[in-house]
Structure formats: C-alpha cells, structure tokens
Amino acid sequence: MPRFRYYRDPLFLVGCTAYAINRWLVKPHIHTGFFHDHFNDCWLIPCALPLVLWLHRRFGLRLHDNLPEISEIVSHLIFWSLLFKWIGPKIWSHATPDPWDVLCYWGGGMVAWFWWHRESQSYRLAIR
User: What's the confidence (pLDDT) of residue 8?
Assistant: First the structure.
C-alpha cells in the first residue's frame, strides 16, 4: 500500500490552495452562491484530515503511514459535523447549523477517499 504523505499529499496542497484562493480572492467579490457559501466546506477532509492524522501519528495514536482508511474519514466527518453544525451553533451565535455544509463535508470526504485510493480501486476493477 502506498505511504500517505500527510501535509505533502497532492490533494492536501491543491485543496489548501483552492481554499485560500476562494477565501481571499473570490469570496470578497461574490456574495451569494456555492463559492461563497459551500465551496470551502468541500475541502474540510482533504485539507484538515492530513494534518490531524499527522498529529495522530506523531503522538502515537496512529500506528501506520497508510492512506486514510474509510473509518478514519467517517469518524472525523461525524466529529466535525457535530462540532461545527450542532455544538458550535449552541455556543457561538455567529455559527449556523446549515445541513448543506454537512453535505459538502461528506461529499468532499468521499471524493478524497476515492482520490487517495484511486490506484487500489482501479486495481480491484481490473481483476474483476
């Protein structure tokens, strides 16, 4: 299995670049729509999970450098969805419980999983 590159992962680097461009160049000029409201939410897993898993590895909570497993992605999606869209709005008045944001988190997470496992998926399809 390929070794996960954490903060050097190409999807992480592309995601952080896309997030920054949208955050500081696009959003100030677009006040409604997908790029203003949901685009950056799609990058939660590709941008945050590699750093979290790297920290887990450094603290001994993750015992391997394999690609993120579906259980790691889903557990973080559940945690962050609850934190940002259920607990957060109860604590901070500026946070909103938007279910579309959660859908974007999950969509981005599933796309990330397919991207990270694209070589193993194509291998599985080729032998069937």
Answer: 97
Please, where are the H alpha helices in the chain? Answer: 10-21, 34-37, 44-58, 70-82, 88-91, 99-116, 118-127
Pick left, alpha or beta for residue 60 (phi over 0 → left; psi -120 to 50 → alpha; otherwise beta).
left
The pair of structure tokens assigned to 83 is 């934190």
pTM: 0.87
CA distance 21 to 115: 21
Element (H, E) at 41: none
**Res 121: pLDDT:** 64
C-alpha span between 33 and 19 (Å, rounded): 16
- Other CB atoms within a 10 A radius of the CB of residue 5 amount to 15
Surface-to-core class of residue 118, CB atoms within 10 Å of its CB (0-12 exposed, 13-18 middle, 19+ buried): exposed
